[in-house]
Amino acid sequence: MPGFIKPQLATLKSNAPSGAQWIHEIKYDGYRAQVHVNSGATKIFTRNGHDWTKRFSRLASSFKLKSQTVFDGEIVVVHEDRTNFSELHADLAKGRQDRMLFYAFDILFHNGEDLRSKPQLKRKELLKELIDMLDPPILYSEHHEGNGQALFEAAARLNYEGIVSKRIDAPYRSDRVEAWQKIKTVQREKFPVVGFIKDPTGVAALYLGKREGKELVYMGKVGTGWSRTVSSEIRKKLDTVVSPKAKLTKPIKKPKATWVEPTFYADIEFHDITSDGLLRASSFKGLSRK
């Protein structure tokens, strides 16, 4: 059995590729994961190679295979009919695992054979055979042939994150490649948090900025995308960096704001930026330090 394999990553594109040499899959909003099954003993690694088997023990115990296999896929939580990273993050914070699913979309190794040089479509054929032997929460990531743009437009209507298009003849390489192309229905970027509005247990909204050279300019606010648990976690972190005044280059009047040092960055999905320079239709996805 190999150790952790650095994952293949998709290249961001604005439009889905066309032609018979491409297949298209829904893009999941979750945690990338690599699953190593070794004759019934299973380990689950994060995208960066950290062993998170204990955090995903329910999923690990669901791989009832007597083979030696390495799967690539995404761990998700489905909320309101679509995968939701914020809900997954909240479940991890609470140690809750009952809603977690694993969507397998590739196979890298099986019973002594390194499959990475095999064409994408051949790998998916073997993957489906194996996943069909298992029950939920282990699922096969279906793909669609033909018009990728049509699938993308359907994903946009359903408020999915986007699609991933894959060349059927391509091998698997541990790098960011053109053979996998991700087309997002929304934009995603990290913005420094410059303030927040309190609510009784957490935050009602976050005020966001953006660094433009030496300036920190106001980009608007976000007030959706978190659960009560995540809201409380955000508040605890921001309470440690409260500032007596806004750190924006051009101060703004926000009577309800509690200003903070721009130490934390909010991961934000948004549709576009208005003519006033503010984020439109923004949604919170996560919080990290600078």
From TrEMBL:
What biological-process terms (Gene Ontology) are attached? Answer: DNA recombination; DNA repair
Q: Known PROSITE patterns for this protein?
A: DNA_LIGASE_A3
Q: What SUPFAM superfamilies has UniProt attached to this entry?
A: DNA ligase/mRNA capping enzyme, catalytic domain, Nucleic acid-binding proteins
Kindly list the GO molecular function terms attached to this UniProt entry: ATP binding; DNA ligase (ATP) activity
Question: Can you state which reaction this protein catalyses?
Answer: ATP + (deoxyribonucleotide)n-3'-hydroxyl + 5'-phospho-(deoxyribonucleotide)m = (deoxyribonucleotide)n+m + AMP + diphosphate
Instruction: Report the enzyme's class at the first EC level.
Output: ligase
Which UniProt key words apply to this protein?
Ligase
List the Pfam families hit by this protein, alphabetically: DNA_ligase_A_C, DNA_ligase_A_M
Q: Which Gene3D superfamilies match?
A: 3.30.1490.70, DNA ligase/mRNA capping enzyme, Nucleic acid-binding proteins
Q: Give residue ranges for domain ATP-dependent DNA ligase family profile.
A: 93-213
Q: What is the E.C. number?
A: 6.5.1.1
Which InterPro entries does the protein's record reference? ATP-dep_DNA_ligase (IPR050191), DNA_ligase_ATP-dep_C (IPR012309), DNA_ligase_ATP-dep_cent (IPR012310), LigD_ligase_dom (IPR014146), NA-bd_OB-fold (IPR012340)
Q: Does the keyword Ligase apply?
A: yes
What residue ranges carry the coiled-coil annotation? Answer: none
Task: State the similarity comment.
Answer: Belongs to the ATP-dependent DNA ligase family.
Name of the featured protein: DNA ligase (ATP)
Species: Bradyrhizobium zhengyangense
